[in-house]
Amino acid sequence: MTPKGKLIPIGGAEKRHSRFLGEEDKKSPAFHLEVLSRVVTEIKGENSRIEVITSASSIPEIVGNEYLHSFKNLECEYVGILNLRTKKEVLRKENLRRLEMADALMISGGNQIRLSRSYLGTPFYELLVKRYHEDPEFVIAGTSAGAMIMSDAMIYEGTSKEALLTGKSKITKGFSLLPESLIDSHFVNRNRFGRLMVGVAEYRDFIGIGLAEDTGIIIQEGRYIECIGSGQVHLLDGKNLQIDHINPHDEASHPAHFRNMLSHMLTSGEKFDIQERKFT
Question: What domains, with CATH codes, occur in the chain?
Fold first, then answer.
């Protein structure tokens, strides 16, 4: 089934505001929130309702206020904060109702395991998936952990050095909004190329998506992506990958080795079809 909604995974550290701005402040170049502005553009209008999910964050009040100020400075008046920390909170009917009324979700960064533990298997998660697949005006944006949770398999921790030396990445189940994918964030700043390569080697039918900071992609129909923001998007394609002698799924650890990993880099405005694996 082709999803009708949009996904906007962001690599973390996108520009945000921590206060309301006056008219003089808005004339400053620092006011321009390129990534969040584009998120607002993809939502249906100024009267749209955005719910910010801060469940992954260790500082949810601070993060929630930053998004509240940022979206209101971008003329979005109807912004709510959902700081749901447990399955019990997620299961409350009033929170399900807020999801029903929302035009968009913004999932903050933090620890993606908090998201999977709290939401997977709940009616909230099921409604989120249903709306993404059936509502053409529904947008799910997420940054850092909020981006990584969107993928089918989800990297939850580990360094590139560790992954390359052991030939294994630390992966669990994500929200599966983007099938056959692995999304990694802070990709350039935290040197995560190696751990995403190893992840793609383990799941070689998947495409690896590495998002730099203040950079994201808009995904339509679950396949067509457009790069937005100030940095790069790195795509790793393992469809022609060759791995000899070592089974990447065995329990023993071995240094990673493989051949024919395809790599592409996109910057703002470039487009790619992740199903056909080609630029558009």
Answer: 6-279 (3.40.50.880)
